[in-house]
Specification:
The complex is a heterodimer of chains A (about 230) and B (about 550). By secondary structure, chain A is mainly alpha-helical. Chain A contains eight helices and no strands. The chains are: A mainly alpha (about 230), B mainly alpha (about 550).
Amino acid sequence: MSDHAAHVPGLAHHFVNMEQQKEAGTIGMWLFLLTEIMFFGGLFLAYTIYRAKYPDGFLQGSHLLSVPLGGLNTVVLIVSSLTMAMAVYYSQLGERKKLLGFLALTLILGSVFLVVKYFEYAEKFQHHLFPAHWMYNPAADHPPTQYHGQVQVFLWIYFMMTGLHALHMIIGIGLLLVIMFMAHKGKFSKQYNSPVELFGLYWHFVDIVWIFLFPLLYLTGYHVGGGH
Amino acid sequence: MATEVMAQAEESRTNYLTNGHTVKSWLLTLDHKRIGLLYLFSISIFFAIGGIYAALIRLELITPQGDLMTAETYNRVFTMHGVMMIFFFLIPSIPATLGNFLLPLMLGTKDVAFPRLNLLSWYVFMVGAILMLITIMSGGVDTGWTFYPPYSSIYSNSQVTLAGVSIFITGFSSILTGLNFMVTIHTMRAPGLTWFRLPLFVWAHYATSLIQVLGTPVVAITVLALAFERTLQIGIFDPKLGGDPVLFQHMFWFYSHPAVYIMIIPSMGVISELIANMTRKKVFGYHFVAFSSLAIAVFGFLVWGHHMFTSSQSMYAGMVFSLITYAVAIPSAIKTFNWTATIFKGSVSYDTPMIYALAFIGLFTIGGMTGLFLAALGLDVHLHDTYFVVAHFHYVMVGGAIIGYLGGLHFWWPKMTGRMYPEVWGRISAAIVFLGFNLTFFPQFIVGYLGMPRRYHAYVPEYQVWHILSTAGASLLAIGFIMPVVYLAWSLKYGEKAGDNPWMAAGLEWETSSPPPTENFTYQPVINHDAYEFENVKEIKEAAAKEAALQTA
């Protein structure tokens, strides 16, 4: 049996069979996502504490963010999750062309997200809203002067959370390129497609983080203050 | 037929150590056994560095005046002692060395689930460690290993950022090891090896991995935030800029308290193996001992607030944390009682591993019981930040974790190297470690109770006698630690050939050859019995048969 197993493409030698390898990969990925939840969890904790401490600062701070751009990015990411799910579906059917097509769509949508994010960040830098002590110098009444300190706290949370999320997007796009290369080479088949599936889990996770970030950071003002 | 026998003999001569002699064959190995040895070698060096710092601390404290070094230097010395010992020795100690080596052997599999990730974890660890060595060479850190802001983020003039980055990176090696072990235990068990047939060492590593996977990311994000606060001057924890310094303490201890269980639970797993095999008895209450590891891991996540009884935490939160901290004593006591019950009426051998196991039981009991003193809300206000705390955690970390590590190292040394260590020297050094340890740290309970604060380089003259005793003990302890290094190295070449199962121990790892072949087993093991069933051990059966034959003759 082990002699036979050695010839299965994609099966590492220390696994007994494909099911064992797939199970290991799946559990491994879910555990990794668990560590990611704990990693972001620290920042969500900080968010909760400071939002309770500085509700007005968070209200003013969230008004500095562009809801249309954040909303656009939310739609882009949700659609990219759909295209990723389609890619996983076609990888299971072993349809290489459609798999490649949906992976490419996912790649494009992920890149669109990052481009939009770049413009959002650039705008903050232009208005001296990056919270580093020597750079932070907001316009006199936007946000109101008495909230400058609290808004600075909001902004470091914004930059750290979205920055870490964007870093995950960048890593995701790098991994996506590897997956596309493997798919192009015809490495995946009905029998062996777990890299696509596992990457899909990662991609959906990064999406879900954004689904939490968008309302917590961009829509706080609407929630607390009832809109502009 | 004859060629087959020769081929088998040939095969038994190549083992994981002889399979490739180049540096590359070690540095690019995917073999869990070699990676375990890479870790063993690296952490021994970091232990020595941490030990040098410990020696400097003890030398300074011989006299009440600060005459060996300035207060500032002393701050750096005790900080680097803590950082090296905790992040670069204790946390990887048993999981990354013995765990790496033994887990696949105990599970009857060829390797861990992700061998490349396993090697990566060592490289990540080394990158973190080299950054920490650079930190040391550029002056070290003076904040204490706890890095409390705002001192660490605003006021300290030492290399906090670099140290933070180093710990951030090192954390990922711990996460990777934990993740790898959990997946391996879930998916790679040999046919017939059900969860409740697993050796308790494996259960302990499962519990440890759970903490590594859930806890480490939190400290990673915490030190990352600290590094950002320091470099960008943003108000994450600094109250002057709107931050909350107690938030750092919460986030730091959310990992760092469970982290002490990362250090002690694997050691408990080792002790379970040692006691079962050295008394030839099934561990009493196997299920309770197995679940108590998990219980410690789970409770461990709910007690971090007992580090903050004196730092503005609400009294009600303090009460809850105090209560849950007491609760940790329950699974710990279950283990201690069950080990004792296992020894009862066993055929006890007093070889070196058993001496360490017995030392562990006694010292861990003292370390654990004094933990209850510190969990008491009122008493802790008096004892907080005194040498009582220092003595308490050294009883758990040295008396528990390191003693277990040394016991395990001696026990599995013949499996790892194929050679026996010299037993007499082993026993002598174990006795010296035990005596030296108690002489070092017991006086610290007393001087701490009398009011000696931790982290001070000068003190009132009344305390001097206790400090002299402690320093004398530390000298003895150093000898006890250096001796194994010498005789274990000696045994690599001159030690007696061990044979496959020198202890007549029960366990899958003893059924393969010593040292094991690269693939661990030349056959696929199938398990049809519980752990620690000594009647199934081939060597014991043979000995019994021989005796029976003699009697009939």
